[in-house]
């Protein structure tokens, strides 16, 4: 070694090499042995030189060089191998690689030189890299170019339009039906995936349509391949299982196609201003139907209805009491609204509304479920369109929920992951509006009286009277509308059992409509309306296909039946593109309102429970009765709902048996079936994680709040006992109290009496309160309201604000498919942990040991070194 080289090598790393007795000229395996000797024979050497100990720590971040552990004997060689093959190496300031790492670098360069011709032989990858840089540099310019291309008058020519359709159809058929060998299929799917990853980065509806085309191409090609090449007609057992799975896949393909047509282009309708002369405004009746809900749930809705900004002589509020309770009559008299009750409960909610139609005369009817609190701007937001379009008979607004549903509460997802219903109100209804196919959802809507009477009032033939009523109106040629602005908010179901009961009613009702008033048949609907209604009804028939997917791999693992009779590599090359493109496209369409893979969790939870009612409704649509969804209840303590989760547990047991048999097949079965066995075991593992997520929802979390807290930042003033005023704002509020945030909280004692000022427009209201607790910048108080007027004013200053719900989803991240998959998988593991905790202490201990063991194994794996380049 020359003098120059020796000087350059005087680093902490060189000190380490000298300390452990390794010649710098020896190869890196020798260095590795020296490091191991350092760990095993000279553990105190780590304390000699802090500088090179820090150098070591940068290369081995998972090792504590102050306290060596037995597992470090495994961690050290694995990390060395990782650095040798994967990670970059340190370079001196002159660019020369130093010391023993030169051997490692030469090895990596040899590997790189061997791989470079293979990588550069794929032009698509190079093109993708170049185009990605272009997209990153100027997305706005690309969007403008796409929009200009979309709006070009060139497409207005009929010959061009139909010619494009024909060319696209021919190309589509060729892409779908042309058989490829394995290499050609790899190139084909790689090209389509590359295009999709580029297109998804460009904003606008045009690229969304292009992604839909790519998804339909890959999915239809997969289905064509399944039908043409993967059924074993020589074995009856294989054929039977294969046809069952194929039927489920055909169903999902139909729903996918119809869903793309339905949701490709949201209308995004905006409100229209009303005439300045209020004498031109129509009369409106507000219906608030109730049956067995407690008065505390109904009271805020009534107070909010009284606060709606509409001329008093043109607004009439009716409390429709199907429970026939005197306290409701007395409450209505006290607040000055109308009260109606009927002698029977025939046709449930639909009958209640129809009964009220005979006692009222308003030109329009606004309907609110008794727990849906309207904002003061509700009618001014919705009524302008009725005066603008004479044929408009129905206008629907979203159902917004300020309390968590069972999924959100039990899984801790509230306001972080969109809830189950947000896809419908955030995307589907907005897209239905484009096709004049908006559904009536039973609440938060306005209906014109004359068309409603023309169809015989609210439909009573099915238990989903709302959607059926809209269908009848649209069959007569009336139009509908949807404004995607939350103008009312309500309570979600408290428990999983209540949630499932509500969905069972919806599923039964949609199946009844499918039988009694099938949208694909009959007169009055255009093709798009038929697709929108038909897809909604088919969605509730997905229980059977979902159960098939959850058990399909057991056909091979338990019965040795090939449900897909083809080599495993072919399955991967056709299934993965179908799934990947569907997820990319749906993430693009739904990303703000439904995160990837969560739909499968929702469907898994409901699958078992909606199969019987939908099957019965298809066979006998007149069976079944209306059930009211309970709201406003409490969950006194945390518990696990074993009754609800029993079907999932049975399917889990079957999948565990199948997985165990699969392990046996790998160890002792034929060698040529290992790939197929692994593929089915992977499918089974995915099913087990989905089922684990469904089980996790059945672990009910305690909910003992009598009133729900709502996060909203509005100005406030805190009146202290001595008369001082503190300007602040609300962090959250409820009917029971409020949390106030300020720069510095005053010193207040618990139960000390204070007052809080809130505003409704320019009008100030002062509410008495009592201190519950305080911190450095936060004071929590409990309301001490003494009159109905104060309760009404509090609702007006909080829930009724026009901007109360418009920013509800601000700050929430859009969907990223891989993150969605990771979260669902974590939830699946959490589900089994909850079962272990609820079932027996030793089970929890065993699961904890398993988790600890997995973490220990993970701790042995290589880590990314923090190498400083000097």
Give the number of DSSP strands.
Answer: 19
In whole angstroms, the N-to-C terminal distance is: 21 Å
Q: What does the main sheet amount to?
A: 7 strands, mixed
Shape: globular
> Reading side by side through the largest sheet, how are the strands ordered?
3-2-1-4-8-6-9
Counting DSSP H or I runs of 4 or more residues, the number of helices is 31
**What does the average pLDDT come to?**
82
Fraction in beta strands: 5-15%
What percentage of residues falls in helices of 4 or more residues?
40-55%
Q: Give start-end ranges of low-pLDDT stretches.
A: 1-17, 19-29, 39-48, 87-101, 114-128
Overall SS class? alpha+beta
Computed Rg: 33 Å
Highlighted features:
7-stranded mixed beta sheet, disordered N terminus, 870 residues, 54% helix, 6-stranded antiparallel β-barrel
């Amino acid at each position: 070694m020359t003098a120059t080289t020796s000087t350059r090598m005087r680093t902490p790393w060189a000190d380490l090499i000298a300390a452990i007795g390794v010649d710098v000229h020896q190869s890196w395996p020798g260095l590795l042995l020296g490091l191991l000797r350092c760990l095993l024979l000279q553990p105190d050497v780590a304390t000699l030189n802090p500088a090179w100990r820090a150098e070591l720590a940068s290369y081995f971040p998972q090792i504590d060089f102050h306290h060596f552990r037995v597992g470090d004997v495994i961690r050290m060689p694995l990390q060395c191998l990782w650095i040798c093959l994967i990670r970059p190496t340190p370079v001196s300031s002159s660019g020369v690689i130093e010391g023993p790492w030169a051997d490692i670098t030469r090895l990596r360069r040899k590997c790189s030189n061997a791989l470079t011709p293979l990588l550069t032989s794929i032009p698509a990858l190079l093109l993708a890299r170049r185009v990605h840089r272009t997209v990153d540099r100027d997305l706005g310019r690309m969007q403008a170019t796409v929009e200009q291309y979309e709006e070009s008058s060139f497409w207005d020519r009929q010959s061009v339009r139909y010619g494009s359709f024909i060319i696209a159809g021919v190309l589509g058929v060729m892409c779908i039906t042309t058989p490829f060998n394995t290499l050609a299929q790899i190139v084909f799917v790689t090209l389509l995936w590359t295009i999709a990853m580029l297109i998804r980065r460009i904003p606008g509806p045009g690229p969304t349509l292009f992604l839909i085309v790519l998804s339909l191409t890959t999915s239809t090609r997969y289905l064509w391949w399944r039908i043409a090449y993967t059924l074993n007609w020589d074995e009856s057992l294989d054929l039977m299982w294969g046809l069952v799975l194929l039927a489920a896949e055909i169903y999902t393909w139909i729903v996918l196609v119809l869903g793309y047509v339905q949701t490709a282009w949201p209308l995004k309708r905006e409100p229209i201003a009303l005439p300045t002369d209020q004498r031109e405004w129509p009369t409106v009746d507000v219906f608030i139907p109730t049956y067995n809900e407690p008065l505390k749930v109904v009271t805020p809705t009534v107070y909010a209805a009284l606060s709606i900004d509409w001329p008093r002589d043109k607004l009439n509020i009716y409390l429709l009491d199907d429970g026939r309770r005197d306290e409701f009559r007395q409450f209505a008299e006290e607040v000055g609204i109308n009260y109606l009750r009927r002698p029977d409960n025939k046709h449930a909610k639909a009958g209640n509304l129809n009964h009220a139609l005979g006692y009222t005369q308003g030109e329009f009817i606004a309907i609110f479920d008794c727990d849906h609190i309207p904002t003061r701007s509700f009618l001014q937001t919705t009524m302008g369109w009725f005066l603008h379009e004479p044929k408009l008979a129905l206008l629907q607004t979203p159902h917004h929920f300020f309390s968590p549903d069972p999924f959100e509460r039990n899984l801790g997802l509230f306001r972080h992951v969109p809830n189950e219903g947000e896809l419908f109100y955030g995307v589907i209804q907005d897209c239905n509006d484009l096709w004049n196919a908006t559904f009536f959802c039973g609440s938060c809507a306005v209906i014109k009286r004359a068309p409603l009477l023309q169809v015989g009032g609210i439909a009573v033939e099915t238990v989903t009277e709302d959607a059926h009523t809209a269908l009848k109106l649209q069959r007569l040629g009336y139009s509908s509308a949807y404004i995607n602005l939350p103008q009312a908010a309500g309570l979600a179901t408290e428990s999983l059992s209540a949630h499932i009961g509500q969905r069972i009613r919806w599923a039964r009702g949609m199946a009844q409509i499918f039988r009694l008033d099938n949208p694909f048949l009959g007169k009055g609907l255009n093709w798009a309306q038929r697709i929108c209604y038909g897809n909604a009804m088919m969605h509730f028939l997905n229980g059977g296909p979902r159960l098939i997917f959850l058990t399909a791999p057991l056909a091979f693992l338990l019965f040795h039946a090939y449900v897909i009779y083809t080599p495993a590599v072919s399955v991967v090359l056709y299934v993965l593109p179908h799934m990947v493109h569907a997820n990319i496209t749906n993430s693009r369409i739904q990303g703000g309102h439904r995160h990837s893979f969560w739909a499968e969790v929702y469907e898994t939870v409901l699958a078992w429970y909606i199969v019987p009612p939908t099957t019965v409704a298809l066979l006998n649509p007149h069976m079944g009765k209306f059930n009211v969804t309970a709201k406003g209840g409490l969950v006194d303590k945390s518990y696990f709902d074993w009754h609800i989760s029993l079907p999932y547990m049975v399917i889990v047991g079957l999948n565990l048996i199948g997985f165990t048999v699969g392990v046996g097949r790998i160890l002792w079965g034929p060698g040529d079936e290992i790939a197929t066995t692994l593929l089915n075991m992977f499918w089974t593992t995915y099913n087990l994680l989905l089922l684990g997520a469904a089980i996790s929802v059945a672990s009910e979390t305690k909910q003992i709040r009598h009133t729900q807290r709502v996060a909203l930042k509005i100005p406030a003033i805190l009146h202290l006992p001595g008369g001082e005023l503190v300007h602040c704002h609300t962090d959250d509020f409820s009917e029971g109290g409020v949390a106030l945030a300020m720069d510095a909280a005053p010193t207040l004692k618990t139960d000390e009496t204070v007052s809080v000022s809130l505003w409704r427009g320019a009008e100030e209201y002062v509410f008495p309160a009592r201190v519950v607790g305080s911190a450095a910048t936060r004071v929590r108080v409990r309301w001490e309201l003494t009159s109905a007027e104060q309760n009404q004013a509090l609702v007006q200053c909080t829930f009724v604000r026009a901007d109360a719900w418009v920013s509800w989803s601000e700050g929430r991240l859009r969907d990223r498919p891989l993150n969605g998959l990771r979260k669902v998988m974590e939830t699946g593991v959490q589900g089994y942990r909850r079962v272990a905790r609820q079932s027996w202490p030793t089970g929890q201990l065993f699961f904890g040991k398993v988790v600890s063991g997995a973490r220990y194994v993970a701790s042995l794996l290589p880590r990314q070194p923090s190498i400083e380049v000097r």
